[in-house]
Each structure stands twice: as C-alpha cells, then as structure tokens.
Amino acid sequence: MPLRVVARAQYLSEGVEQMRRVDYHATHMVKAVKGLELHPNAWTQVTINGAGVKIRERNKDEAIKWFGEWAAPLIDGLGPRRKVLIPIPSSSTVRNSEPNYRTKILCDAIGARMQRPASVAPILRWRRPMIPSRQGGPRDPHALYPELILIGPITAGDCILVDDVETTGGHFIAAAWALMDLERTPSLAVTCGRTLHRQLDDPFIVADEELDISR
C-alpha cells in the first residue's frame, strides 16, 4: 500500500564535495521553514507563485507563508472532499503539549491558503519526549509507531500528513499506521525538504516518492 510523498526541495543536511549555489538556496530555504538559525549574511532567492523572493535570517518566518502558498494548491488539486491536515509532532510534543509546534504552524499556513474546505488536526503526540533524529533518535517506523498516541477524534475528510523534512520516511509511515488504527489511511504526505545525499540537477524539483505503509 503506497503513500505518496511530495517535497518542495532537496535538503542537503550534509554538504557534498562541490556545493552549487542552487544547492545552498534549496537547503537555506528548508532551514528557514524548519526555523533553524541562518547565517546573518546569507540569503536565498526562491520563486513563489511566479515571483522571486529573498529569504534571510530577519524574514525567515515568512518562509512558512511561502511554503503554505506552494502546498495549498497542490492539496486543493486532490479534489473537492474536505482535507484534514495532520502535522507530524516535534520530538518534544507530548500529550499535554500546546499545539504551537513548527509543523502545526505549517499546517495552519497551508489551510489558510486553501480554496477548498480544510481543517488542521494536531492530534498526533509522543508518549514521551523523543530524541530528535538529527541527534541519533529513531527513524525506524517500527520503533516510532509504539510511541505515538492519538489525543482526539479525526473529523471527516481526506487525511494529509505534513512535516518539515523527510529523510527515510519513518515518521510518515509510523503516523500512517496510527491513523490506520482508526481506519483513516492518509491520502498524501507533504514536506518542505527531502534529505537526499546526492545532488539533483535541480534541487527544487524532487521526484515524488511512494512509501510502503502496508503492515
């Protein structure tokens, strides 16, 4: 059973031997969406809805809006049924956490720009704080799935998973399994950055991926 994953750009979380300017641009944009600190003198030029914009440290939170502008028409194009945007929880997001984590904010930005009916459902939580993947935390869906809980019902509609970065797909798979426990198989997963440790000809054109979410 496949889950389609669509990414905005390649994320070179580790530099390659000959980094090109376009590689820096794509990685810089993803870092801005993630909320990571940017070099104060660095900037990236990206195209949003046909217009060029510059992302810098001082305006990096605007990148959330620009990501929403990219993702909203993509999800609208799936059809008229209501869409339920479900953020992948951050590593510190547990049962009683406030719904103010980065991926929830990304979902809000997408939903605010959609033309078709949509809602945001921050219902996924970790049983306990997790070690972030970048610090050696688990990426295996079999290790992640038992740590996920659902804290509320899911409204009717097609479920769309949203994360800032996808590397192995383990978080998307584990989240899909949690939703499938309620007989709600997600229709799509959307992410800003896809970590690929090889250069693409154009890092802003990332081929769609299909994750096997069968159990």
Structure write-up:
- It is globular and about 45 Å long.
- The mean pLDDT is 92.
- The strands form three sheets. The chain has a six-stranded mixed β-sheet, sandwiched between helices. The protein has a two-stranded antiparallel sheet with strand order 2-3.
- The protein has one domain: Rossmann fold.
- The protein contains five helices and ten strands.
- Helix content is 25%, strand content 26%.
- It has helices at 21-34, 62-76, 102-111, 141-144, 170-180; strands spanning 2-11, 44-48, 51-55, 83-87, 118-120, 124-126, 148-150, 158-166, 188-195, 209-212.
- The protein is α/β, with parallel strands linked by helices and 215 residues long.
Structure keywords:
single chain, 215 residues, alpha/beta, Rossmann fold, six-stranded mixed sheet, two-stranded antiparallel sheet, 5 helices, 26% strand
